[in-house]
Design goal:
Length: 303
């Protein structure tokens, strides 16, 4: 619940930048109160989880946290004389960036990946065959061999094309007046790039609305910001710093789901809703409900 509130606050902050000045002042005061409440709730949950924790891991965690805060305190004092207490109001906003950027994006991508595969049984079956063909002998997914999952990687890339985790990249401000086709964009204009629309533009993609992972097989198009028709992680100096980590998490989780279970929609494919819900991350409007089915080889033998 706290994470969802953090994400909603982040959405409102982006929309706030496009509001008139008189509205900004009132909305900003409200948002600061919401962030403070979320921060307090997060601290309460953390304290409840660790108040009885006397393990070595708990002691190590506290030692690392105290050491980090001490280093920050010394750095701040050395530069401008401020103490950690002066920095605290700004530190409260760090989770607003961390939760949507580091948690929700990966979870949303995994959910859309599973949605698209279940919606396309041919893709799901082929993906399972590829995963099991590589890891069947070992009995589990080895993260050191994720680079061999070429087809699954193509599936994730196609998912990001249709359902980018961030439908609108971080806002830019024009340094000078430019002309793009018949449009003039004045200097100091705040610009939002619609990644969702670019990924579905038929000028760049054949059968743009069709889920087709094969388009990325033997393709040089990557998500690292060099192909502007495909920028799910943004591009330039503001490109997502956690690309490799995020893709590894999505690939490893998806591979495990495919390796250990077969999947089918709870209410049938015809009722699998693929409507999106707009926000700082592009999530499903309806909760994804799937039935995991253990394969025959995973069932224990009865006496």
């Amino acid at each position: 619940m706290v994470i969802l509130m953090m994400i909603q606050v982040t959405v409102k902050m982006h929309l706030l930048q496009m509001s008139p000045l008189n509205m900004k002042q009132q909305l900003l005061k409200l948002l600061i109160r919401i962030v403070s409440y979320c921060h307090k709730q997060t601290l309460n949950l953390h304290q409840e989880d660790h108040k009885d924790n006397q393990s070595a891991f708990g002691a190590l965690e506290n030692e690392i946290a105290e050491g980090f805060l001490a280093v920050v305190d010394e750095i701040v004092k050395a530069h401008n004389g401020l103490g950690l207490s002066d920095l605290y109001p700004s530190l409260k906003f760090i989770p607003v960036d961390m939760f949507p950027g580091g948690v929700e994006t990966s979870a949303s991508t995994i959910e859309w990946t599973m949605s698209e595969m279940v919606k396309n049984p041919r893709v799901l079956q082929l993906a399972q065959e590829k995963v099991k063909g590589i890891f069947q002998s070992k009995g589990n997914v080895d993260e050191n061999r994720l680079n061999e999952l070429i087809y699954l990687h193509a599936i994730i890339k196609e998912t990001l094309r249709l359902h980018p985790a961030g439908s609108l990249v971080l806002p830019r401000e024009m340094r000078e007046t430019v002309h793009i086709y018949e449009f003039e964009i004045p200097a100091n204009t705040r610009v939002l790039v619609n990644v969702w629309a670019i990924g579905r533009d038929p000028s760049y993609w054949m059968d743009a609305e069709k889920f087709c992972p094969e388009r990325f097989l033997n393709s040089s198009i990557e998500y690292k910001g060099t192909n502007f028709e495909y920028i799910p992680f943004d591009a330039g100096r503001r490109i997502c710093p956690g690309i490799q980590f995020g893709m590894s998490v999505v690939q490893l989780t998806s591979a495990n789901l495919l390796f250990h279970f077969d999947w089918k929609a709870l209410n049938g494919l015809e009722n699998l809703d693929m409507i999106e819900q707009f926000g700082i991350t592009l999530t499903r409007k309806q909760v994804l409900r799937l039935i995991p089915i253990a394969p025959d080889y995973a069932m224990p033998m009865l006496p």
